[in-house]
């Protein structure tokens, strides 16, 4: 009788891969939800609307996308190299940063939907949907992005344990 030894990290151990695996379905659900919101507005409102609503959504949406890009850099300050590595605390910080980045990135969709119903045209929702979905998929917590965030925490020589 032979037994097999599982490869890789133990199941309870935190890593960037496990963190990314936890966040990926949320990212995809938020991106899918953004698309569905735009489709609902397209079906509910027959008029395209005016350029004022689109301009408002573009201004607010781009500002929120920039905030989603900038926020992790402001939130993730380098760790103290004299402190012991704490993978649970680092994972919690990276997870929270990922959620905040996703929330900021999806907000243009919500702004577009609201402006569409206020102005009576679907074009603002479409503009917000394009900005929000693009921001979610490009700024969300993917493996390379999590690696960059981890490196930011470890820039002074500290170790996160992830």
Structure description:
The chain has one domain. Helices cover 71% and strands 0% of the residues. The model has no long low-confidence stretch (mean pLDDT 85).
What's the short version?
The protein has 162 residues and is mainly α.
Blueprint of the fold:
Blueprint: H1 16-44, H2 51-75, H3 87-119, H4 123-139, H5 143-153
- Largest sheet: number of strands, sense, barrel closure: none
Domain count: 1
Query: What gap, in angstroms, lies between the N and C termini?
Result: 35 Å
Strand segment count: 0
Tell me the overall shape: elongated
- Low-pLDDT stretches: none
Proportion of strand residues: under 5%
Q: Treating each run of at least 4 consecutive H or I residues as one helix, how many helices?
A: 5
User: SSE string, helix = H, strand = E?
Assistant: HHHHH
Helix content: over 70%
Radius of gyration: 20 Å
């Amino acid at each position: 009788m032979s037994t097999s030894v599982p490869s890789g990290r133990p199941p309870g151990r935190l890593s960037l891969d496990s963190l990314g695996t936890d966040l990926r379905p949320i990212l995809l659900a938020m991106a899918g939800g953004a698309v569905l919101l735009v489709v609902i507005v397209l079906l509910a409102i027959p008029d395209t609307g005016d350029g004022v609503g689109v301009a408002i959504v573009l201004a607010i949406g781009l500002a929120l996308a920039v905030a989603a890009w900038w926020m992790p850099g402001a939130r993730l300050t380098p760790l103290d190299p004299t402190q012991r590595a704490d993978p649970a605390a680092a994972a919690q910080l990276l997870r929270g940063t990922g959620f905040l980045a996703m929330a900021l990135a999806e907000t243009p969709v919500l702004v577009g939907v609201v402006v569409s119903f206020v102005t009576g045209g679907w074009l603002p929702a479409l503009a917000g949907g394009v900005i929000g979905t693009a921001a979610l998929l490009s700024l969300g917590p993917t493996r390379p992005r999590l690696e960059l965030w981890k490196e930011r925490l470890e820039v002074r020589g500290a170790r996160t344990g992830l």
